[in-house]
Specification:
There is one protein chain. With 208 residues, the chain is mostly beta strands. The chain is built from no helices and 20 strands. The chain has strands at 2-5, 16-18, 23-33, 40-42, 49-60, 67-69, 77-78, 81-88, 98-102, 108-115, 127-132, 135-136, 139-146, 149-150, 154-158, 165-166, 169-180, 185-189, 193-194, 197-207. Strands 1, 3, 5, 7, 8, 10, 13, 14, 17 and 20 form a ten-stranded parallel sheet that branches.
Length: 208
């Protein structure tokens, strides 16, 4: 198992950056820690990326999101798989808005843990633990979000503020012990979802 560990203070350094149009990539069995930017960022801008698998990765203490999948100009990452990944104390920079962010059709997120240790400083500003942008025919299952604290508005799963979320499955989602010290705390926002199924979702002890 490898570790990518940033050991200086250079700003906006990402662990792995996948540029425009790359496909058939597998990233497995590693740890990305202490980066000042994103742990992994995938940003197609003029050609879709396809079939990217991220499995058994620990994202630890990433300044921005542990994982950012975000296209532009109508291009996205298709058939993304993220499985057996842990996000530990990520999104710690004040510029961060998400701990994990995904988009693109045919995605699978399976067995995901997003947590903040009790000894970690409260995150400054607003945060989404998991932000989901436009996606269709995607599966989100066995996702646990726990212990996140922020000073601003806090959302466990935001699947509502972006349009185009259709025909998705949300199954075995657990969101517990979220707290905002001076903003609203929301377990899930789902107003942007159409023709989607929610099964065995638990939201407990979200304070703010």
């Amino acid at each position: 198992q490898y570790t990518l560990d940033q050991t200086n203070s250079t700003t906006n350094v990402s662990g792995i950056s996948i540029g425009n149009g790359f496909s058939n990539i597998t990233i497995i069995n590693g740890r990305i820690r202490n980066v000042t930017g994103n742990g992994i960022i995938i940003t197609p801008t003029s050609t879709n990326s396809e079939k990217i698998t991220i499995e058994n990765i620990v994202f630890e203490n990433c300044g921005l999101a542990g994982l950012t999948i975000q296209g532009s100009g109508g291009f996205s990452t298709q058939n993304l798989v993220v499985r057996n990944c842990t996000f530990l104390d990520c999104g710690r920079n004040s510029a961060a808005t998400d701990i994990a962010r995904v988009s693109g059709d045919g995605a699978t997120l399976d067995t995901i843990l997003i947590i903040q240790r009790p000894t970690t400083s409260i995150l400054g500003g607003s945060r989404n633990a998991l932000k989901i942008d436009g996606t269709q025919n995607s599966v989100f299952k066995a996702i646990r979000i726990a212990g996140i604290q922020s000073t601003g508005a806090l959302v466990g799963v935001d699947a509502g503020t972006s349009s185009g979320i259709q025909s998705c499955l949300f199954q075995d989602i657990s969101i517990t012990d979220l707290r905002s010290t001076s903003g609203n705390t929301t377990g899930m926002i789902v107003s942007g979802c159409q023709n989607s199924l929610f099964s065995r979702c638990i939201i407990n002890n979200c304070i703010g």
